[in-house]
Amino acid sequence: MPELPEVEVICRGIIPHVRHARITDIRYSGKPLRTVVPIDAMRDTLLNVPIEKIWRRAKYIVFSFANDMTLIFHMGMSGKLTLCPPETPPAKHDHLFFTLDSHIQLRMNDTRRFGQVVFVDREKSGDLETTVFKNTGPEPFSEACSGSYLHRRARSSNQPVKTFLMNAHIIAGIGNIYANESLFAAGIHPATPVSNLSLYQWEELMKKIQAILHWAIDCGGSTINDYINASGEQGYFQANFKIYGKDGTPCTICRAIIEKMKIGGRASYFCPVCQKI
Ligand SMILES: [Zn+2]
Fold first, then answer.
1. Residue 44, exposed/middle/buried by CB under 10 A (0-12, 13-18, 19+)?
2. Which residues pair with 250 in a beta bridge?
3. Distance 189 CA to ligand 1 centre (A)
4. Cα 48 to ligand 1 centre (Å)
5. 26 by DSSP, 3-state: which?
6. Angle 220-222-223 (CA atoms, 0-180°, nearest 5)?
7. The pTM is what?
8. How far apart are CA 34 and CA 55, in angstroms?
9. Is the separation of the CB atoms in 206 and 145 below 8 Å?
10. What is the mean pLDDT of residues 198-211?
11. What is the residue-wise DSSP string for 145-199?
């Protein structure tokens, strides 16, 4: 599943080709995605209107148009946005085709069809943070997402720290891969109850989260299952995984054998020496 770095890489890849362009035609495969594709609303309001801004929020890519309408893409399990010349034959699992006046076509491809396209009308587009994203936690790179913020949110909870980090209401964009990698980097066992962590530990963990996400973005994201970036290339961050999927192999720090357990139903990896509860 694409996490924050993969979505950021897709977003950066498409911005130069899509910003200020206008959509001249929209086609749809008709196959259902996670929610109903707002094809009529898109055709009625977005054709020939300049795309003013494209950015990432959590794991969403947001397009805002000059008429104050908004289109939001969520990649789900396997979604991606790709660019190609409009005459390129449809690839398997291409579901949405946006032809742009910049002579390029933006496509949403989604093998497993858990992706989503959300149309937001003018009334709600004005302040997405209080409408669409009202339950979404702060961005990991924002000032709001400090160690003291996490410490405060964790005070009255006993859930495992890994589950807490993957909760998008608490902090945006962190899934299983980067939760595992950040906790290893911070030397914190993924099952540690959050109320046991000190303010200092939260501050150190926050620094590791930011460093790892930056590093992953610089590497072009990771390639897990179906994920490829906007230019159709694979990301390379998985070469730098230190803990994710490494059970049975020696820890890069202490050589103890990495173990695996399920936490909140998700595969969790840890070094029994470097990450004690
Ligand atoms: Zn170790």
1. exposed
2. 257
3. 11
4. 56
5. strand
6. 115
7. 0.90
8. 22
9. yes
10. 97
11. S-HHHHHHHHTT--SBHHHHHT-TTTSSS--HHHHHHHHHHHT--TT-BGGG--H
Tokens of 245: 């999927």
End-to-end CA distance of the chain: 28
- Residue type for 219, please? C
Q: For residues 164 and 179, what is the distance between their CA atoms, to the nearest angstrom?
A: 9
Pairing of strands 79-84, 23-28: unpaired
The pLDDT value given to residue 225: 43
**Catalytically annotated residues:** 2-3, 59, 266
46-103 pLDDT, tens digit per residue, is 999 999 999 999 999 999 999 999 999 998 888 889 899 999 999 999 999 999 999 9
What's the gap in Å between 269 CA and the centre of ligand 1?
11
CB 10 within 8 A of CB 79: no
